[in-house]
Here is the input.
Amino acid sequence: MKLSVNGKEHDVSVSDDMPLLWVLRDVLGLTGTKFGCGMAQCGACTVLVDGQPVRSCVRPAAAVEGRAVTTIEGLSLQGDHPVQRAWAEVDVVQCGYCQSGQILAAAALLQAKPKPSDADVDAALSGNLCRCGTYQRIRSAVHRAAELMEG
Amino acid sequence: MTPPQDSQPELSRRSFLKRSAVVGGSLVVGFFVPAPLRRFAFAQEPPGAAAAPALPPVNAFLRIGGDESVTVLLAHSEMGQGIWTTLPMMVNEELDADWSRFRVEHAPAATVYHSPVFPIQMTGGSTSTWSELDRYRQVGAVARTLLVAAAAAQWGVAPADCRTEKGWVLHGDRKASYGSLAAAAAQLPAPDHVELKAPENWQVIGKPTRRLDTPEKITGRAQFGLDVQLPGMLTAVVAHARTFGAKVRSFDPAAAQAVPGVRKVFAVPTGVAVVADHFWAAKKGRDALQVEWDPGPHAGLDTAILRESYRAQAKSAGAKAAAGGDVEKALSGAVPLVAEYSVPYLAHAPMEPLNCTVRRGAEGVELWTGTQFQTVDQQRVAAIFGLKPEQVEIHTTFLGGGFGRRANLVSDFVVEAAHVAKNLDQPVKLVWTRDDDIRGGYYRPMAVHRLEGALDAQGAPVAWRQRIVSQSIVAGSPFAAMIKDGIDPTAVEGASDSQYVTAIPHHRVELHTVDPGIPVLWWRSVGSSHTAFAVESFVDELAHAAKRDPLEFRRALLAKAPRMRAVLELAAEKAGWGSAPPAGRGRGLAVHESFGSIVAHVAEVSVDGGHVRVHRVVCAIDCGVCVNPLGVRAQMESGVVYGLSAALYGELTMKEGRVVESNFHDYRILRLHEMPQVEVHIVSSREKSGGAGEPGTPPIAPAVANAVFALTGQRLRELPLRLA
Here is the structure.
């Protein structure tokens, strides 16, 4: 099947039921997308498909053929997407394992809603678990990213 | 604490040089101080002690490159707690290098990296920061001394006439960069003594400092154990039994082997391994696999029945953990207040599922894993392969959360990976699924506390008897020597040494140690994860019985514990204790000392449709000298969330020997929309530094339970908290 990931075309030969997560990690070597639960409960595997957040652990790669997949590696060239800049400024990360998913979910939210309310942030990010408990800083960083995007 | 035997010899100097010779194409000069490597034990002494122990071998901890890079090697594992930043801060307090040039690496497994307070290389007990405060500062000080000496020799001036600034040595109008001096400095004899800066001159310690690991963690570049990829590597999953202590009776590999990509199916001591080209094939192979199990001796386990047996046992006397006065007499002369508290088994559930990659080579074995227990893992894997410990090289990756789960006394997932690798020629990555993690044991033990207390005529507590029923974490392990007179301190800490309890004239803390066959382990804050709930809830009950304000009652009880009282007062003041809470909300407080630090929380809660909602937590901490206030704040927020997940949702149950829960849908953890506003206040202090990773967790459950009582009058004595 043909997959478009971070603007690059890949031809991969995998079973039809293989989730996008494992194609990204084990076939394409893009390990920034994380495995946390395997059943769309934690959001660690979040990627963007045509700009929409998708849990790649339950989405077969075959289902995203012909669509644009963006992983954390492709969010920005220099790690300087406004969400990433805000994350650094607010000192969000702890263990860091869930943060690829958090950052992509936040980027998708801000794309859809440039000035999100706290309730919008809650709704968009409550599917992304963080065992270290960085939630409070994630909230502030999303708002900070909104400011940075506004310029 | 008497951890495992210290048996592996020092990693050779040659091996260090081999590692450090070329990094990123530029020559990197490592300092080498040819002093005898003596154990570094002075962190147990008060700061500024007169004894002058051996200085640490700087080359093992620090490399200064010709490219001006400053690389700090971490003797402990970064699992979110922030030592990737804190330990380099200590180095730079003395080194005076350019912070933007700092890089950090996990050290290999070697005796030189043994903890200053335990004779193994490990991360746990909230010790990394306080125990390294001297060693990592000394590393910086020795390096700076050598760099200054090298510059002074070049210029023909006295070292004392030189100064340093942000990676430069200066003398008059001359200056030389650290990188340009590194090679010459490496040739100089190391000083046998360095003066560390007095705390009042600190520039780095105490300054809020952002994390050094952020760039790789926000771009997906950070390598966790699960991200390790090696040429020719296979992936393994293991079919585990559903009951603890079960054994494989027989298995039919045919269906698993029929899955495309599956290479090999074989038994290991813990189950049946399915090895494939990638995770998905291995997982599908495991799903298809047919295994017959001998369910073993624990197939009848039921946590509801177990809890009732604990409750029954709590009514009789146990082994003495602490005692003062005559509690029998004091209780018999009054109508005692009696309450039973219970907490369930809990999984650590770090976000990164457990994993370990193993590669066998001609000279030994290499492991890649996020571990908190390098020395233990090294020894156990060496035994499996018939190697010496130093032939097992450990590459510590970032840990996607640890919380104690990756400090396993029997190295469970690492040992399993070794057994899988023993059957293969290729490198292999063992991956646990979330089910494997939640159902895999090594839990925070279930515990029941029975409390009996009495007040005098003035409402002051005069008697306190606490009987704890729980499992020993360290029994049967290399840490079993921690058990004294039948007491595993990890089961009673936070109660037997509580300043509340010992302040009561007649007190007694007893322990019944049970062994139902469920593997248990240290879970963030260990014994305090349940003792704080029982102690602080019962103190609140006594305050209510005495018809006293919860804060005033505690202040009186803590009359001889000024630090603890001050922390409690700070949290109460910042939370507006004494003023009416917002409509529909109740406030509760709790204070607890653990891991050398004191934390108080005031929780503000409401009740909505039978659910407890926590809106605001005001936290105060006294951790003595605070190295990185930004990091301590993060750890308080983190400890609150970890404790709230347990207080509101966390529970593992067993029926017919099987763990019922399996993943985040039925083992719930706090989500972002449930996150309270957390405000952290740090006591400014020059007292001995304490921990920060764990102490934020214990007081949150009782603070919330006490707030629920204040709001509803319902005293909730079981975790997770469930309203009637």
User: Anything to note?
Assistant: Chain A has a mean pLDDT of 97. Strands of chain A lie at 2-5, 8-11, 46-49, 52-55, 68-70. Chain A has five helices and five strands. The first strand of chain A starts at residue 2 and ends at 5.
